[in-house]
Amino acid sequence: MQLFKVNLVALILGAIAGYLIAGPVLAVILAASAVAGVMVWYNFATGFVLTKLKAVRLTEASAGNPIYRTFLGDAYKLVEKAGLPRTKFAVIDAPLPLAFSLGSAGSGGWIVVTTGLFKTLTRLEMASVTAHELGHIKAGERTTAAMHLGFSLMLSSTGLRPVFHILTLGLFRAADHKFRRISQGMLRPDCRADAFAAELCKDSAILASALHKLERGVRAASWDALEGSPLLARLAIVNPRQAVYSFDNPERSPLGHRVAELKRLTLTDAKAA
88 and 170: one domain? Predict the structure, then answer.
Protein backbone atom coordinates (compact mmCIF):
# COMPACT_ATOMS: atom_id res chain seq x y z
CA MET A 1 0.00 0.00 0.00
CA GLN A 2 2.85 2.43 0.81
CA LEU A 3 4.49 1.84 -2.56
CA PHE A 4 1.14 2.25 -4.30
CA LYS A 5 0.66 5.64 -2.62
CA VAL A 6 4.14 6.81 -3.66
CA ASN A 7 3.50 5.70 -7.24
CA LEU A 8 0.12 7.42 -7.25
CA VAL A 9 1.62 10.72 -6.07
CA ALA A 10 4.39 10.46 -8.68
CA LEU A 11 1.82 9.69 -11.37
CA ILE A 12 -0.36 12.66 -10.48
CA LEU A 13 2.52 15.13 -10.14
CA GLY A 14 4.08 13.95 -13.41
CA ALA A 15 0.76 14.24 -15.23
CA ILE A 16 0.07 17.73 -13.86
CA ALA A 17 3.57 18.97 -14.72
CA GLY A 18 3.40 17.53 -18.25
CA TYR A 19 -0.06 18.93 -18.91
CA LEU A 20 0.92 22.42 -17.73
CA ILE A 21 4.06 22.41 -19.87
CA ALA A 22 2.81 20.97 -23.16
CA GLY A 23 -0.58 19.30 -22.85
CA PRO A 24 -1.87 15.72 -22.59
CA VAL A 25 0.87 13.95 -24.58
CA LEU A 26 3.67 15.19 -22.34
CA ALA A 27 1.42 14.56 -19.34
CA VAL A 28 1.28 10.84 -20.19
CA ILE A 29 5.03 10.70 -20.86
CA LEU A 30 6.00 12.43 -17.62
CA ALA A 31 3.50 10.42 -15.58
CA ALA A 32 4.90 7.14 -16.92
CA SER A 33 8.46 8.36 -16.43
CA ALA A 34 7.74 9.37 -12.84
CA VAL A 35 6.34 5.93 -11.98
CA ALA A 36 9.29 4.23 -13.69
CA GLY A 37 11.67 6.44 -11.72
CA VAL A 38 9.96 5.52 -8.46
CA MET A 39 10.30 1.80 -9.19
CA VAL A 40 13.98 2.16 -10.13
CA TRP A 41 14.65 4.05 -6.92
CA TYR A 42 12.63 1.50 -4.93
CA ASN A 43 14.92 -1.29 -6.15
CA PHE A 44 18.19 0.59 -5.57
CA ALA A 45 17.40 2.63 -2.43
CA THR A 46 18.23 -0.04 0.14
CA GLY A 47 21.69 -0.64 -1.30
CA PHE A 48 22.32 3.10 -1.45
CA VAL A 49 21.28 3.57 2.21
CA LEU A 50 23.43 0.68 3.47
CA THR A 51 26.43 1.96 1.52
CA LYS A 52 25.93 5.54 2.66
CA LEU A 53 25.66 4.51 6.32
CA LYS A 54 28.68 2.17 5.92
CA ALA A 55 26.61 -0.78 7.06
CA VAL A 56 28.24 -4.21 6.83
CA ARG A 57 26.05 -7.20 6.13
CA LEU A 58 26.04 -9.90 8.81
CA THR A 59 25.82 -13.50 7.65
CA GLU A 60 26.59 -16.80 9.33
CA ALA A 61 29.67 -17.09 7.10
CA SER A 62 30.98 -13.54 7.57
CA ALA A 63 30.18 -13.00 11.26
CA GLY A 64 33.56 -13.73 12.83
CA ASN A 65 32.59 -12.17 16.16
CA PRO A 66 30.91 -14.79 18.40
CA ILE A 67 28.51 -12.12 19.68
CA TYR A 68 27.33 -11.49 16.12
CA ARG A 69 26.96 -15.23 15.47
CA THR A 70 24.83 -15.63 18.60
CA PHE A 71 22.74 -12.62 17.60
CA LEU A 72 22.16 -14.05 14.11
CA GLY A 73 21.25 -17.46 15.50
CA ASP A 74 18.60 -15.95 17.77
CA ALA A 75 17.42 -13.59 15.02
CA TYR A 76 16.92 -16.34 12.41
CA LYS A 77 14.78 -18.32 14.87
CA LEU A 78 12.56 -15.26 15.35
CA VAL A 79 12.36 -14.69 11.59
CA GLU A 80 11.11 -18.25 11.16
CA LYS A 81 8.57 -17.85 13.97
CA ALA A 82 7.36 -14.59 12.40
CA GLY A 83 6.70 -16.41 9.13
CA LEU A 84 8.84 -14.04 7.05
CA PRO A 85 11.25 -14.89 4.23
CA ARG A 86 14.90 -14.83 5.25
CA THR A 87 15.40 -11.34 6.67
CA LYS A 88 18.88 -9.86 6.16
CA PHE A 89 20.93 -8.13 8.84
CA ALA A 90 23.62 -5.43 8.85
CA VAL A 91 25.68 -3.60 11.46
CA ILE A 92 26.91 0.00 11.58
CA ASP A 93 29.99 0.89 13.61
CA ALA A 94 28.51 3.66 15.77
CA PRO A 95 28.26 4.16 19.56
CA LEU A 96 24.65 5.35 19.39
CA PRO A 97 22.46 2.32 20.28
CA LEU A 98 20.04 2.14 17.36
CA ALA A 99 18.07 -0.47 15.46
CA PHE A 100 15.84 0.13 12.46
CA SER A 101 14.32 -1.85 9.60
CA LEU A 102 13.88 -1.42 5.86
CA GLY A 103 11.97 -3.31 3.20
CA SER A 104 8.78 -5.24 2.62
CA ALA A 105 7.31 -8.34 4.19
CA GLY A 106 7.47 -10.06 0.82
CA SER A 107 11.26 -9.76 0.67
CA GLY A 108 11.85 -10.24 4.39
CA GLY A 109 13.47 -6.82 4.59
CA TRP A 110 16.62 -5.69 6.39
CA ILE A 111 17.25 -5.10 10.08
CA VAL A 112 20.16 -2.75 10.80
CA VAL A 113 21.77 -2.42 14.22
CA THR A 114 24.70 -0.43 15.57
CA THR A 115 27.68 -1.71 17.54
CA GLY A 116 26.44 0.51 20.37
CA LEU A 117 23.31 -1.63 20.61
CA PHE A 118 25.37 -4.73 21.47
CA LYS A 119 27.14 -2.79 24.22
CA THR A 120 23.86 -1.59 25.72
CA LEU A 121 21.55 -4.62 25.72
CA THR A 122 21.66 -8.24 26.86
CA ARG A 123 21.21 -11.17 24.51
CA LEU A 124 17.50 -11.52 25.32
CA GLU A 125 16.96 -7.76 24.95
CA MET A 126 18.67 -7.83 21.55
CA ALA A 127 16.26 -10.58 20.52
CA SER A 128 13.29 -8.51 21.66
CA VAL A 129 14.53 -5.54 19.58
CA THR A 130 14.86 -7.84 16.56
CA ALA A 131 11.29 -9.03 17.12
CA HIS A 132 10.09 -5.40 17.29
CA GLU A 133 11.68 -4.61 13.92
CA LEU A 134 10.22 -7.80 12.44
CA GLY A 135 6.85 -6.48 13.57
CA HIS A 136 7.33 -3.32 11.50
CA ILE A 137 8.33 -5.36 8.44
CA LYS A 138 5.46 -7.82 8.90
CA ALA A 139 2.95 -4.95 9.13
CA GLY A 140 4.25 -3.43 5.87
CA GLU A 141 5.38 -0.24 7.63
CA ARG A 142 8.91 -0.26 6.17
CA THR A 143 8.14 -0.91 2.49
CA THR A 144 9.21 2.55 1.32
CA ALA A 145 11.45 3.46 4.28
CA ALA A 146 14.66 2.99 2.27
CA MET A 147 13.35 5.30 -0.46
CA HIS A 148 12.64 8.10 2.01
CA LEU A 149 15.82 7.57 4.02
CA GLY A 150 17.95 7.39 0.86
CA PHE A 151 16.44 10.62 -0.44
CA SER A 152 17.11 12.28 2.92
CA LEU A 153 20.75 11.15 2.85
CA MET A 154 21.12 12.32 -0.74
CA LEU A 155 19.80 15.79 0.10
CA SER A 156 22.26 16.12 2.95
CA SER A 157 25.28 14.87 1.00
CA THR A 158 24.59 17.30 -1.85
CA GLY A 159 23.81 20.22 0.45
CA LEU A 160 20.34 20.62 -1.09
CA ARG A 161 18.31 20.04 2.09
CA PRO A 162 17.75 23.78 2.80
CA VAL A 163 16.75 24.35 -0.85
CA PHE A 164 14.32 21.42 -0.71
CA HIS A 165 12.74 22.80 2.47
CA ILE A 166 12.26 26.19 0.82
CA LEU A 167 10.75 24.73 -2.37
CA THR A 168 8.35 22.50 -0.39
CA LEU A 169 7.52 25.28 2.09
CA GLY A 170 8.90 23.16 4.93
CA LEU A 171 6.23 20.48 4.59
CA PHE A 172 8.80 17.68 4.77
CA ARG A 173 10.97 19.18 7.47
CA ALA A 174 12.03 16.66 10.13
CA ALA A 175 10.69 17.01 13.65
CA ASP A 176 12.43 19.56 15.83
CA HIS A 177 14.75 18.59 18.66
CA LYS A 178 11.83 19.23 21.02
CA PHE A 179 8.29 18.05 20.40
CA ARG A 180 5.35 20.30 21.04
CA ARG A 181 2.96 17.40 21.26
CA ILE A 182 3.20 13.65 20.84
CA SER A 183 -0.09 11.93 20.17
CA GLN A 184 -0.95 8.28 20.64
CA GLY A 185 -1.43 8.14 16.87
CA MET A 186 2.28 8.90 16.38
CA LEU A 187 3.18 6.07 18.75
CA ARG A 188 0.70 3.52 17.41
CA PRO A 189 3.07 1.82 14.89
CA ASP A 190 5.71 1.36 17.59
CA CYS A 191 3.13 0.10 20.08
CA ARG A 192 1.92 -2.44 17.51
CA ALA A 193 5.49 -3.59 16.89
CA ASP A 194 6.08 -3.77 20.66
CA ALA A 195 3.02 -6.01 21.03
CA PHE A 196 4.22 -8.20 18.15
CA ALA A 197 7.63 -8.55 19.83
CA ALA A 198 6.07 -9.39 23.19
CA GLU A 199 4.02 -12.16 21.59
CA LEU A 200 6.93 -13.49 19.54
CA CYS A 201 9.32 -13.54 22.53
CA LYS A 202 6.64 -14.63 25.02
CA ASP A 203 7.80 -11.98 27.49
CA SER A 204 6.92 -8.28 27.32
CA ALA A 205 9.14 -7.41 30.32
CA ILE A 206 12.30 -8.03 28.27
CA LEU A 207 11.39 -5.44 25.65
CA ALA A 208 10.32 -2.99 28.36
CA SER A 209 13.76 -3.38 29.93
CA ALA A 210 15.40 -2.82 26.54
CA LEU A 211 13.39 0.36 25.97
CA HIS A 212 14.45 1.77 29.34
CA LYS A 213 18.12 1.05 28.60
CA LEU A 214 17.90 2.49 25.11
CA GLU A 215 16.22 5.65 26.40
CA ARG A 216 19.19 6.26 28.68
CA GLY A 217 21.73 5.06 26.13
CA VAL A 218 20.72 7.32 23.25
CA ARG A 219 20.77 10.36 25.53
CA ALA A 220 24.30 9.57 26.68
CA ALA A 221 25.84 8.56 23.34
CA SER A 222 27.17 10.66 20.48
CA TRP A 223 24.59 11.47 17.80
CA ASP A 224 27.09 11.37 14.93
CA ALA A 225 25.20 8.47 13.33
CA LEU A 226 22.24 10.80 12.80
CA GLU A 227 24.20 13.55 11.08
CA GLY A 228 22.88 14.07 7.59
CA SER A 229 19.66 12.14 8.17
CA PRO A 230 17.10 13.33 10.73
CA LEU A 231 14.75 10.70 9.30
CA LEU A 232 16.95 7.96 10.76
CA ALA A 233 15.87 9.04 14.25
CA ARG A 234 12.22 8.45 13.37
CA LEU A 235 12.95 4.93 12.08
CA ALA A 236 14.88 3.89 15.18
CA ILE A 237 13.23 1.63 17.77
CA VAL A 238 13.84 4.44 20.27
CA ASN A 239 13.79 7.87 18.68
CA PRO A 240 16.67 9.82 20.31
CA ARG A 241 14.65 13.01 20.12
CA GLN A 242 11.76 11.33 21.94
CA ALA A 243 14.22 10.11 24.57
CA VAL A 244 15.29 13.70 25.21
CA TYR A 245 11.65 14.79 25.28
CA SER A 246 10.86 12.01 27.78
CA PHE A 247 13.64 13.21 30.08
CA ASP A 248 12.38 16.81 29.97
CA ASN A 249 8.68 15.86 30.12
CA PRO A 250 8.41 12.65 32.20
CA GLU A 251 4.69 13.13 32.69
CA ARG A 252 4.16 12.91 28.91
CA SER A 253 6.90 10.42 28.09
CA PRO A 254 6.35 8.62 24.75
CA LEU A 255 8.50 5.73 25.92
CA GLY A 256 6.62 5.69 29.21
CA HIS A 257 3.42 5.19 27.22
CA ARG A 258 4.96 2.29 25.29
CA VAL A 259 6.21 0.61 28.47
CA ALA A 260 2.80 1.06 30.06
CA GLU A 261 1.22 -0.67 27.07
CA LEU A 262 3.66 -3.56 27.46
CA LYS A 263 2.79 -3.86 31.16
CA ARG A 264 -0.90 -3.88 30.25
CA LEU A 265 -0.23 -6.77 27.88
CA THR A 266 1.53 -8.64 30.69
CA LEU A 267 -1.45 -8.19 33.00
CA THR A 268 -3.87 -9.23 30.27
CA ASP A 269 -1.85 -12.36 29.54
CA ALA A 270 -1.66 -13.18 33.26
CA LYS A 271 -5.45 -12.91 33.61
CA ALA A 272 -5.99 -15.06 30.53
CA ALA A 273 -3.69 -17.74 31.96
Answer: yes
Helix (H) or strand (E) holding 160: none
- Structural domain for 35, as ranges: 1-52
Measure the CA–CA gap between 183 and 4, rounded to whole angstroms: 26
Round to whole Å and give the CA distance between 245 and 254: 8
Whole-prediction pTM: 0.87
C-alpha 194/C-alpha 200 separation (Å) is: 10
101 in the same domain as 140: yes
Residues 8-30 have pLDDT tens digits of 888 888 888 887 888 888 888 88
Residues 6+ positions from 23 with CB-CB distance below 8 Å: none
* Cα–Cα distance for residue pair 80/127, rounded to 1 Å: 13
- Alpha-carbon distance 243 to 245, whole Å? 5
Please give, one letter per residue, the 3-state secondary structure of 78-122. Answer: HHHHHCCCCCEEEEECCCCCCEEEECCCCCCCEEEEEHHHHHHCC
